[in-house]
């Protein structure tokens, strides 16, 4: 392996180094070009090559990055062998690093909301591909020009189906100390909710200007977060809305089982922050008392051994279920849909239900006729009869002229795992499904359950005759 420092003008397997973009403790990143390729790429090479952690982390990134798809991670291009000069060529992601916004903290509430939702969507996409990032921090987040958030630097990441070389070779917590989740400090690298904890730290930092757990440099300093909570954001920033404090402190729960159940559920909640269920977390004005902290410390000491779950099992235990509610189908049909949704939610206690309906889009400039508000009220009543905790269900009204496309877009953007809808009004000469149901069944990115319409003679009074999904 060649150890000489890289210089502008050097060539690696046809890549010509143009400009050093960044140098860190474990790697440096160059802007590079290749004659058969446009635009320029980012070329990453390890530095401090005598450090085992740098080499192993680089090897893990070389294994993981080629397996990732989509805009939430850089596109893999090529890699170099360790026998000569190791490198990793990838997409040079255009956009703004979140690190540039750190100096402007505290940030506006609207921007923090956008960061939180964008990060949650990016993590949900990674988790769906069996990858935990495990080093979420401002310098590893880029906002593309189209608003999509991309995570970079997978040197500390873990892939469910690859050997975790870092866990096998090192006996210390690995990561950036302010953002490490309690379970990472205990050397558990298997829980996707560790990434949610890091999002909570990042949002707290951007919201208040302070890191919730400081920058600890010792193991004793690191372990304090296992039982010691930070001051609530509203104690440091009075204009913080209750829903945002609720979200941040929910992400920062020391016990992973008490955090937001998944990144996809966090993204769905932040898509409609006014529907976030508020608990005692939202009203906190100071950190927990010494007595409560002491009880938490003893609970940790006496807790049974925590056995890691597979990422697939963790995802399956916290799905997002979308019920496409068509009020024009009649009472018996909507009751049938509600009954099926209720059984699914009772069977999966950590599941989230998104109740969705569609109404025709109003022509531009036309005054509202109250349909949107009326549908929201009807959806809430429909959901309340399921007797679910408020935190487990949200309602959404989509204004669209193409209900099938709108429902499919909602499912993709919110990482829905299961769609429930009725099949009725078959297309002439078609499959026996309605026009919306047929398209959703054919193109959905997840499981779809089509419910048989109620038998003739069942109650079929529509809430609004002639108005609905056309399923």
TrEMBL record:
InterPro entries: Kinase-like_dom_sf (IPR011009), Prot_kinase_dom (IPR000719), Rossmann-like_a/b/a_fold (IPR014729), UspA (IPR006016)
PROSITE patterns linked to this entry: PROTEIN_KINASE_DOM
Pfam families: Pkinase, Usp
Alphabetical UniProt keywords: ATP-binding, Kinase, Nucleotide-binding, Serine/threonine-protein kinase, Transferase
Keyword presence, Kinase: yes
Domain Protein kinase: 15-278
Alphabetical list of SMART domains matching this protein: S_TKc
Gene3D superfamilies named in the record: HUPs, Phosphorylase Kinase, domain 1, Transferase(Phosphotransferase) domain 1
Protein name according to UniProt: Non-specific serine/threonine protein kinase
Organism: Rhodoblastus acidophilus (Rhodopseudomonas acidophila)
Lineage: Bacteria, Pseudomonadati, Pseudomonadota, Alphaproteobacteria, Hyphomicrobiales
